[in-house]
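[09:14] KT: can someone run the structure on this one? pasting the chain below
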Amino acid sequence: MIRQPQINDLALISDRQTGALLDKQGTISWFCPTRFDAEAVFSLLLDQQKGGYWLVEADDKQFVSRAYHERSSVLTTQYTVAGQPFFITDWMPIDFAFRGICRQFSNATEEITNRIRLKPDYGLRDCIPVLADDSLSVNFPSVSLCLYTSHPSTLEENELVFRIPANETGWAVLVDERKPHPPLTVELLQDSLRHTENVWKQLGSLLVYDGPYEKEVNDSIRAIQQLTYAKTGGIIAAATTSLPEVIGGKRNYDYRFVWMRDVALITGSIVQVDEVGEVEENFLSFMCGALGKNDQANLSPFYSVEKEVIASAEQLELGGYRNSRPVQIGNTASKQLQLDSDANILIAAKLVYDRFGKREHWEAVCKVANFLAENWKREDNGIWEEEVRKHYTTSKAYTARGLEFIAKYADSPAQASYWKETASQIRKFVHDHCMTKQGAFAVYAGSEEVDIAAALFTPWSYTEPDSREMKATVQALETDYCRNHLYWRHLEEFDSKKEGAFLAGTFWMAHHYAIAGNLPKAKAIIEAGLAYQNDLGYFSEEAGINSGEMLGNFPQTFVHSSFICAVNGLKLAMAGKDSRAF
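[09:31] RB: done, structure tokens below
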């Protein structure tokens, strides 16, 4: 029986327009042609019965290891077949004569069988394959895809099958036929491999980190680059939809979009290792373009990769990952007011301006600042996108800090004064209304709970790490939201203790402790988080501390950026330097 892969076992190949997920057995269980948020044609990940897949089988096939070619997205997986070495190399060509998924198979001592079931619309529709006379290509006209293979294919029940005889090499390419291309040959396939490796080598050279946890940080940088939609520069939150935060639960969301809060935080991490500024320019350009394209007064919390507003969600009749339903596409959070999202835009813009000395897209940044100055008194949905609106403390504090930061670049003293005075009013509101009886930063005005998002007050220098308020907040987090150096967030509408440890927040705490000078604690937290990084350096959203498994959508760029920030904070602290933004 075909089984869904474990999230821990997943790997990503990407052409920076879309991506495919495969596991240690070489099974492709997720692929959305054309772009990250298109409909999937391989979706075993979300339905064991209906979902499409690409299997590679052989007698006595055993996984040995896998690795990317240096900093690239080209993946080679090693097996033994009947005790002898066998290799599969997977990649997606970038900026080449054709687009699609390429698979190259070494010779093996036994027959290698490929079984493919292509099911459009996330597995809800059938797709009739049309075999060529020589059976070396198979067309799927309803989805504009064509499979080219080194050996003939046959139709067997509901699967397309091609076999590579023992002691022969083989290859296969699933090509997007929307783009005209030359005839697919083994020579063209090799050209695409060399070209793709060179493109990734150039991309890798743009963002280079050296220091503690060097491999892990560079793996995280690759993950962020893989999930960047090159056409617009938008970085999606994750490659998947509806992977559960609670196995069997209902907290299953579509993350294949560009969340402005996430991208702002990602930009804040990347600016520390970027010598060129490409990611930062893409971030500001995406923000400006989204405002203009949609004629908006303020930013939506997220957009599609093409800067479109997503206003609805649809539930699909699928079984879900390990029976976790609903499975949905789209997201309704665009209707929310998330002040912290806009505030993080200002914080990231300030970091970019400081780093590169240019006020790119200043008009759009001013628009965001003025919106926040005019609307900070409103209740919003907060950083965790709660349905209930409240005066969330982090929304207020991030807004104050964003306005203070961006005032440095104001056009006039009057403009700077307006933003600074507004920030002072917000700080007074937080002081008067957003503290617990123990003197900690509350989740919202009137609450007696705390939230992990307050850990970012330290790197953003909203308050000193040893201030009375911050010490009280950290103590409450350690007492009520921590286990084995992993941390949980606070949710109003769900008992967060039922979900996994929140990895982004865990790394925020590590960064706080690094700045506070407690380096052993910072390192212990980083090590605890790294226990939930898989063999290729990927993080999902949460850590199942009881089961040891990954939870939530995958890979989660938000977590990768938080990890980069934490490690860089530790690196600077070890050198006696301060990683805070001032």
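[09:33] KT: thanks! The mean pLDDT is 96.
[09:34] RB: yep, looked fine to me
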